[in-house]
Fold this protein.
Amino acid sequence: MTQPSGPDALATTVLRRLEAAGGTVAVAESLTGGLVLAALTSVAGASRVVRGGIVAYATDLKAQLLGVDGALVARTGAVDPEVARAMAVGARARFGATWAVATTGEAGPESASGQPVGTVHVAVVGPGVDRVRALRLAGDRAAVRAASVTAALELLADALPGGPNG
């Protein structure tokens, strides 16, 4: 039997660590459009730790659904590390999760935000953890979105108990 790789392996690792720690996770997504949540819920048993997710693709929904400060978005735009952090904080609060991960960025093929295509921010928040990673990804829209999912899952895996930085 082959071992899962990429996002499948990361999702499995994340879910095992969450379950072992008695934790739960929520997701807030923009450019990934639900792909992070789909990766997590593709793993059998995900329902034991996954609380849910919000796809706030439209900028105004980041404030309405996730509580991101509208003044922050007006000042920085939606593709910003602080917006990613606020999205994760909002998802964690709204779903009552131990952990939350968020994605925001510019997948292309053209920029809608004024940021270069491939500019992505992923964030994770949890007990004593508040991390954001800025990325500059290459490739077409599908490649940027796929790499964003992997980066979000890696950031979460690294932060969880049992991870290299957890």
Notes: The radius of gyration is 15 Å.
